[in-house]
Design goal:
Structural class: alpha/beta
Protein name: Cysteine hydrolase
Distance between the termini: 17 Å
Largest sheet: 6 strands, parallel
Pfam families: Isochorismatase
Strand order of the largest sheet: 3-2-1-4-5-8
Radius of gyration: 16 Å
Number of domains: 1
Order of helices and strands: EHHEEHEHEEEHEH
GO molecular function: hydrolase activity
Number of helices: 6
Oligomer: single chain
Helix content: 25-40%
CATH architecture: 3-Layer(aba) Sandwich
Shape: globular
Keywords: Hydrolase
Strand content: 15-25%
Organism: Bradyrhizobium arachidis
Number of strands: 8
CATH topology: Rossmann fold
């Protein structure tokens, strides 16, 4: 029998991204971490499962190495005792981890996904969740990304990348929702 509540998947809300910003990288959605905190509060208040995903860098210069300050989780998204932390070393939270097994063992079928960055680890985790048959819901105002230069040398804004990623995932891999939608869904049950 499916778990009656969705699980919150919090992807890579780590201090490395603050370091990137401090070094001059520009991001979109400045309130994303506040929305993640709102989601955590709602899931905790309703006794819904939460899984924290942490990225561990593997390259010598990675800001996500466990020995570096960027590996730490931002205070607003810190796990509480009993909330599992799953460490990944690639973009997908499902590769090289036991996330899928944990979800299946608890009969969880619906995943609410938030975190960073929209077009990397969040997107890859969301695509795999959809392909694995989960009812994936990506929270558009609880994720963010950074400006990037494409292979053609053109500059792409974080806002455009974020919007395109949501468009690519919508319908086929996930339903795109807001924090308000998710919080309201608890009140409706």
């Amino acid at each position: 029998m499916p778990h009656p509540l969705p699980a919150l998947i919090v992807v890579d809300v780590q201090c490395a991204f603050d370091e990137w910003e401090a070094a001059g990288k520009r991001r979109n959605n400045p309130d994303a971490v506040k929305r993640i905190a709102d989601l955590l509060k709602a899931f905790r208040a309703n006794g819904a499962p939460i899984f924290h995903i942490r990225h561990e860098g593997t390259k010598p210069n990675s800001t996500f190495l466990p020995s570096r300050t960027g590996y730490a989780v931002k205070d607003e998204a810190r796990e509480l005792p009993g909330e599992p932390v799953i460490v990944k070393r690639v973009n997908s939270a499902f590769i090289g981890t036991d996330l899928e097994q944990r979800l299946r063992a608890r009969h969880i079928t619906t995943l609410v996904i938030c975190g960073a960055t929209t077009n990397h680890c969040v997107e890859t985790t969301t695509r795999m969740a959809g392909n694995l048959g989960f009812d994936a819901r990506l929270v558009r105002d609880a994720t963010w990304t950074f400006d990037r230069i494409g292979p053609d040398g053109d500059a792409h804004s974080a806002e455009a990348i974020h919007a395109m990623t949501l468009s690519n995932l919508n319908g086929e891999f996930a339903r795109i929702v807001t924090t308000g939608d998710v919080v309201a869904s608890f009140a409706a049950e």
